[in-house]
Design a protein that fits this description.
The protein is 37% helix and 24% strand. With 250 residues, it is an alpha/beta fold. The termini are far apart.
């Protein structure tokens, strides 16, 4: 066989293998800018770009499925999706249910408040005072942090950031605790100019992708793809594209 023939054969076999594997079914909750959100009917953001890059590297087409955040793990375990790529924080509880890949990003929980209350929460310890009204999203690491560390606070639950922002404006809560990306978005949206983040991370968390228990082959493929993305600068390019401010987690 000639070298040219072998090359063509190899490319054909690789293409056939990718087709046989089928589309990679990616589960997202597209309500979390800039990680993953909808814009003009399209799912965009860091995770959408990550998924596209991974698909190119492992040679598989993508199928994005948008669903509520609390439905992601059940859908994964039921076999309706293959991987969760939705700004997922690595936690001990989640690790009992899924296999996490290597981390692609470090974030932390931050407190958001109305600008009228900046003076009241100027000191780091002020968040921990008794009676502070804290807003969180159910099932998030922000909610877990508040319930674990802010035992003297009055905790209220909101289904999304929009509802929590409205609560801040109507003085129903003093602070809204959510992941750093939510705070980053405040830097680029004029409609939220009356809100501000303390920009002092309260936690340090790893973001990663998740697959079903036992799906070690796919986890290995994803980790290899992530390694390539880190080495060739693709991951940093994606992060730089979507993150409007630089916040260091110390």
């Amino acid at each position: 066989m000639t070298r040219k023939y072998l090359l063509v054969l190899f490319m054909w076999l690789a293409s056939s293998a990718a087709m046989a594997a089928g589309a990679l079914r990616v589960g997202v909750s597209a309500d979390y800018p800039p990680l993953v959100f909808e814009r003009e009917g399209q799912v965009v953001g860091i995770e959408a770009d990550n998924a596209l890059a991974v698909g190119e590297i492992i040679g598989r087409k993508l199928s994005l499925t948008n669903m509520p955040f609390d439905k992601l793990i059940p859908a994964l375990l039921a076999g309706d999706i293959d991987v969760i790529m939705s700004g997922f924080s690595v936690t001990a509880k989640r690790s009992e249910q899924v296999i996490f890949t290597d981390s692609y990003m470090v974030v932390g929980q931050m407190a958001i408040l109305h600008r009228d209350k900046i003076a009241a929460f100027a000191q780091p310890w002020s968040v921990y005072r008794a009676g502070v009204r804290i807003g969180v999203e159910p099932g998030t690491t922000g909610a877990a942090f508040a319930e674990r560390e802010l035992k003297d606070a009055e905790i209220k639950f909101y289904q999304d950031s929009g509802a929590a922002f409205a609560a801040l404006r109507s003085d129903q809560i003093d602070l809204y605790i959510h992941d750093a990306p939510t705070s980053w978005q405040l830097a680029t949206t004029r409609e939220n100019a009356d809100l501000i983040s303390l920009y002092s991370p309260m936690t340090e968390e790893m973001l990663a992708w998740a697959v079903r228990p036992g799906d070690d082959v796919l986890a290995g493929e994803l980790n290899r793809a992530l390694s390539v993305m880190k080495a060739n600068g693709t991951l940093q390019y994606i992060l730089n594209r979507w993150i409007p401010v630089k916040v260091e987690v110390r």
